TrEMBL record, chains A, B, C, D:
SUPFAM superfamilies: Hypothetical protein TM1070. It holds the Pfam family ASRT. This is Sensory rhodopsin transducer.
Length: 123, 123, 123, 123
């Protein structure tokens, strides 16, 4: 299958609320970067997290296998360090093969969930 | 009328919640790919669904007639197989004439609905 | 000021819920095409509405003055005919000067509002 | 680190609700332009606000330091003048180095918040 997408993506809006309502993990407040790797090669992905008041942190590493999607929760990033909650961040994604990246937040701070999503910016 | 759009589109975020609140089918939790075929030719569209842990499934086939829109619910795809609920997926769309593709989720797992939408990624 | 944008835009998702909760007109369920005309010339805009099961309707005509924004509610279109509620549609926008077009729905069918928005597809 | 993004961005949808529910400032109704400056140079940014019925206002000035994100609330703009609440606006952003711009609204007019977000239009 032909690859689709780009090798660099960015989102500028990042924020993981510390509070949640409803059953975990489905309704835990979270932000996701969803990847589609439609190519026949595994994608080696590195993510750099930017903050408002300190140096960027990374790289975080992730493999998205060939012909697979991966919905990566920013909440789950651990190495080199977790992303703090209730903190503004941004993310730069670099991949060795073209992928598609889409950003989503499920926000359950209040009793009823809210959602946002956008295709990330292809650089 | 002149065609507008592209012949390949992708979304990386796909997830159909199994639970819903409110009258069906309008408020059933669903994800949609909305197509606009502004051209004077019918569009023959094929959709491939990607998963996190198994091979892609498809093609699903759909015709969007000339000068028509079609709001296709991923919930309704049946052949070759339905998309399981509560499961992460992604979608690649290929068309023989240029179309515009926009992705939407209506999520009514909780009492009050949430919405997301984005123009898909044109490949 | 230099113009920014494109002269053709499309959205594929269109749907105006017939039901609303909360004070009108702010919280009436509605869909909007928001225009930015940053140029020094008035923009003459035509809109064509596409349906699933009948021929497109239009042109609807709108002027966005130079150096102005206009947030046009699809609910308010009247000539040549209103857009029916609870009906899937799509929209093609053509302008004689470059503008930016962004699509939004405020959905208040249930007690708590939901929102979606995306930059339209530039053709 | 290599810069990513563009030097001009626009959003056409702008609206800051005057009413809010929930603890301030996190759940105050607000609109944000989130910036990512992944480059090694500080970004000098100017913002022009467009209205439906009067001349544009600006420039508003903002610095996004090298290798930082900044989530700027439109609510907080003061110089040359605040953006009035419950008023349609649009925004044009110009930067001297490439940045990524993403637009978000958190709307808490009703008891449960709603969210929208989209990558802005790169000009």
């Amino acid at each position: 299958m032909t690859a689709i997408g780009k090798t660099r993506w960015a989102i500028a809006e990042g924020y993981i609320p510390s509070e949640s309502t409803g059953p975990a993990p489905a309704l835990t407040s979270h932000e996701t970067m969803c990847f589609l790797n439609a190519s026949d090669q595994d994608a080696q992905i590195t993510i750099t997290i930017f903050y408002e008041d300190r140096d960027p942190v990374g790289p975080y590493r992730l493999t998205v296998p060939a012909r697979r999607t991966s919905h990566m929760r920013f909440n789950d990033l651990k190495d080199p360090e977790p992303i703090p909650r209730d903190t503004n961040y941004a993310a730069l994604v670099e991949s060795d093969v073209p992928v598609v990246a889409q950003h989503t937040r499920l926000d359950s701070r209040q009793a009823e969930l809210a959602l946002l999503s956008t295709i990330a910016f292809p650089g």
